[in-house]
Amino acid sequence: MDIHRCRFVNYPSSAINSVAFTHSVLPAKASKNIQVRLAIGRANGDIEIWNPLNGAWLQELVIQGGQDRSVDGLVWVTDADEEMVDGKIIYGKSRLFSIGYTATITEWDLEKARAKKHASGQHGDLWCLGIQPLPHKASAASNTNRKLVAGTVDGNLVLYSIENNDLKFERSLIRTPSKNVKFVSIDFQSRYIVVVGCSNGRIYAYDIRNGSLLRQMSLGTDINGGSKNIIVWSVKCLPNGDIVSGDSTGQVCIWDGKTYTQAQRIQSHTQDVLCLSVSADGSRIVSGGMDRRTAIYEPMASHSGRWTKIFHRRYHSHDVKAMASFESKGMSVVVSGGSDSSPVVIPLRNAGREYHRTLSHLPQNATLQSAPKARLILSWWGKEVRIWNLPMSASQLINDPAAPSYMRKNRKLIAKIIVKGESSISSAAISEDGTLLAAATVSDIKVFQLNLAGDQIKKVSLETSGLGATKIQISPDKQWISWVEDGSRVMTSRVSVESSNNSENYVISKPTKLNRLRRHIPKHILLGGLGSYERNVTQIEFSPDSKVLAVADLAGYIDTWVLRVPGEEKQTNGASGETADDDESDSSSDEEEESAAEKSGPHWVRNPKAALLPKLSTAPVVLSFSPETLDEQDYSLLVITASKQLFVFNPLAGALSEWSRRNTYPKLPEQFRETRDLVKGVVWQRQRVWVYGASFVFMLDLSKDFDPEIDNAKSGKKQGIKRKRGVNESGAGGRIEKSSHALGPQKVRTTTTGEANEKVEWEEVDVMMADAKSATSGAEDEGDEDEEDEDGELQRLRGGEENGKEVAEVEKTETTAKWWHTYQYRPILGMVLLGVESPEEGELVEVALVERPLVGADLPERYLVEGEWERR
């Protein structure tokens, strides 16, 4: 494989301004139905939703921002639990609100991935936002009595009502006498007492029932001879009622919650303390500041009521602006963010005893696609789409003696498209020949016909419902466009060509909706938590011949459809033509729709075996069809989940492939299973799959078995060996075991597209080939349990292994690696196919790997004193 290593994609970084968890703490025996999510707000208006997944940290959703938008405050509102008549618990419904230094509060609809409601009042810009806590004995009636309390830039404290699933301005609670006072930070000490940090060096405590001022606390003047007006950037209240504040002098102050007097000052930062977080039991305080430090404090054992800093670290390369904590039986973490764009997960319960973990600043779904037949790369960011051309192939560059000079010219920006409107692009796609482009926002879908040789770009009309799309894809044969609107509704339109005036124009038909299988989700789950949010579609993919369409959602369900063409024999490839036996498959309605659609031409119908594909234990992060079938009678659909489970399905038969039955999770390479970053995408080379994440590239040869001699007995399944679930108990970093492997004979050629005066050369990179035993060493006590074997549906699909049938021995070859990996590329924005050549020794795949390091990114200037870089 030849790799073009590129860094030319315009993908600016965006600072993290706010973070918030749906729940700050879960009881030890919390139900698995409780949905815990992390929301991250960025300076460009994006909101990211993350699932902790026991330390896997999956970025599930990105709600795109827009022009002049910023998310500077996030608050989750989680209602009290309710008990149904049958005894089942409806866990409190979660709602997400945000502010952005405007006079407006926005509620977000995660199911539809867009704003749900806006509300504003007669006041200045909102700078801080808090939610009134539930009473100790919360009931369903408590959900209707809670208020959002916000502080403004003009010193006004305002109330917003969220009753009856609504959002509206209620009244102004208090206004300070001075117009120069800004309410900067806010937290609740109890259900009716709110504590506000201000820009005048004071902290106020108000009773929200009548707006009365209970007490004011003053920080005085900067003891270091600085400004007299100290800004209280953050306030937090401990469970015992004590108050913690962080200010512009770099001090963390502890205030007695009963007398409202200062109990202690800790000078732990050299510059402003911008954010604070406290543990659920009040035993730890975490602070972050402009000096890049993150400090942790504990109560002093010898002095009751006093605190001490136990240590500090510089996890970030710039200001630490926001943080939030989450604790449960298996996790105890603080997530922080700032101007360097990367979220950092810090252990809280095991602080100082475990490693931290830096999550990728790049999106989980690559904002990158290619048109391999035209050697084009499509990238997008904000409202801008860029198209690049790499005209010369790898073979031409290698064989041409003037390769270095050509290489400097081997990339060219040939088109730039700005999508009109206020919303940013959520998804984009380009046809394989580079003549059709589609870009979607939350409110619209734009389609363009490209004639890049003639420097022409024409808009193509597409009739939509005005809802835009979260995902969009163009079929390989360029005859279909499919997209996802409202988060979960799958739509398709046919693309045809009409000739007029000696030119060809694309025409797009009226969209049609594809019905997904209705899955049985208990009522008590739909009414609580995040509702049907997990049915949001995250993956959409066409088969190479454009005759099968597959989508996957966050819940782990896969839906498939097949293309029917009037007059052609129905393609079942060994699958029964009968509708699957599922009482919720809507088979009768499907047949009526199919008979009506046959009159109008090619149309999509639900795969008769769609219901046989099982629900996966975690969300799929990759959904991809193999260009060559691994089983001759069916397509091969590769699915990789967030927990590194790898499956190959035969969708028309609704079954696992024979290869996937033999190669269970414990038999996958150990390095692949233990790599912490999630998989982002794949590139196929016949039956080899090149898997990449933010920091790695793996090659897995799916034509070979990894370890056929290891059976279920050795893995501990039948011997009753209880395997440990994960070495990452806190949800942050952990100890990573390093293993050595023999070098294989295979090499990969890489090159870098550099600047104009940079010398560019091809480099031979040795690859790592694992032998059979080392790839699965420790299978008996592997940290991640083979969860798919616990699922009844997957046990049924695996069939042969579960019934004790032996796996046939596969001949090993010493000249070809079954798998290899490298960590030399990082951080990877995406990897896309550029072309395929077929020399005598085998198929040669050419790809472009695009990196987006933070080095050189446009970051604001940071505070720096003499010697600050050296001080730790």
From TrEMBL:
GO terms for cellular component: 90S preribosome; small-subunit processome; t-UTP complex. This is Quinon protein alcohol dehydrogenase-like superfamily. Transmembrane segments: none annotated. Coiled coil: none annotated. WD repeats lie at residues 266-298. Residues 715-725 have a biased composition (Basic residues). SMART domains: WD40. GO terms for biological process: maturation of SSU-rRNA from tricistronic rRNA transcript (SSU-rRNA, 5.8S rRNA, LSU-rRNA). Pfam families: WD40 (PF00400). Residues 579-595, 779-792 have a biased composition (Acidic residues). One of its GO terms (molecular function) is RNA binding. It comes from the Eukaryota. InterPro entries: Quinoprotein_ADH-like_sf (IPR011047), UTP4 (IPR046351), WD40/YVTN_repeat-like_dom_sf (IPR015943), WD40_rpt (IPR001680). Gene3D superfamilies: YVTN repeat-like/Quinoprotein amine dehydrogenase. Residues 793-810 have a biased composition (Basic and acidic residues). Residues 568-603, 713-810 are annotated as: Disordered. Keywords: WD repeat.
